[in-house]
Amino acid sequence: MSATLGGAEVVDVRGYQGGEVVLFPGPPEYIYRVQSGLVRVHTVDDEGNGLTLRYVKPGGFFGEEALTGETRRYFAEAVTATKVAVLDTGSLTREDRRQLLVHLVHVVEGLYRALNRLAGKRLRSRIAAELLELGTSDLASVDEQGVPTVHITHDDLAAAVGSVRETVTKVVGELVRLEAIDAGYGKIRLSRLDVLRDVAGE
User: Fold this and answer.
1) Beta strands of the chain (E only): which ranges?
2) Are 17 and 107 in a shared domain?
3) pLDDT tens digits, one per residue of 138-168
4) Number of independent structural domains in the chain
């Protein structure tokens, strides 16, 4: 899908540092497009436990509920330094809406995959799949050999796969023993992508 919308009016372009909240739950107003960086869309339950719903990479959108007027029930947080374009829904052309529909189809398909992993796959497979996804995001750096390193804590990885830090740390150790990854403080090097893909089963 195109990274731009042809007729949509850009109301504002906003910059955020990693860890800043871009959107809180509440009434919708605009659609947002990530120009650079990475945005995490997540929810928090009554006990304060967080769950990552999806990541939005450059060219991707969030805040789509502004099209229907539905109340927003999630948070959007900048994971890295991020720029976001604020788009006026009233200025969207028919082609813009078609592009957004295609985008939403991809979002729903990704959520189906995530639900399938949660319901039917072992935690090790879910973590491997998540690392592969993040390995192509702004959360990753690539060394001179072309090997990606994902800069993420075990707490954040646990939130992304619906688990807890202690269990994720144990599984990360298993992946290290498989030589799929090398783990350090706040970073995970994806040393064997083929092994990770095999473990992820995707």
Assistant:
1) 9-16, 21-23, 31-36, 39-44, 50-56, 61-62, 75-78, 82-88, 140-142, 148-150, 182-184, 187-189
2) yes
3) 889 988 888 999 999 998 898 888 788 899 9
4) 2
